[in-house]
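Subgroup meeting minutes
Present: P.N., E.W., G.H.
Scribe: E.W.

1. P.N. recapped why we're keeping a running log of single-chain structure predictions: easier to compare across weeks, and new members can see raw inputs and outputs side by side.
2. G.H. added today's entry (159 aa).
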Amino acid sequence: MQSVGFVVLVVTVVFLGGCGGYVLKGRVVEGPGPAVMVVGTGEERYRMRDGSGSGAEVLVTIDPDSIRPNRMRPVVANGSGYFEIPIRESGAGFLEYELRLIVKRPGYLSADETLALPKSGRRLLVSLPRGRDRVEPKREVDVLREALEEGGPYLRGEK
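Output recorded in log:
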């Protein structure tokens, strides 16, 4: 009987999790190098009073290497560098999803990382060093477009 209750709980969490319950939260701060870390809310750098990440643009793509990556609307970090992005994927925060995070701010090097979507209660801490971006962010892979380009001659009967 306990296993039936557990199954009902898991199914409920999975289906309700996609109803707007998960919010990706994080903070952008000035740091020694571009980095994205998953931290708890007690992390000192996450809580310190600092506005160095103010105005940073945060771009998130869920399942970036899939055939249909979900590009979220960009958000801008508030005056203290905090940002929040509602994730509408079913089971987000409970099931495992991969995300690509790009954080840009004028006068700072950008961070571009692919990582697992943090579990509920965890936060992202993004470190950006001062400087000028010299490298373009990693290119998003569009699997369908690449397949059509590679298969074009075959589809047209040229090979």
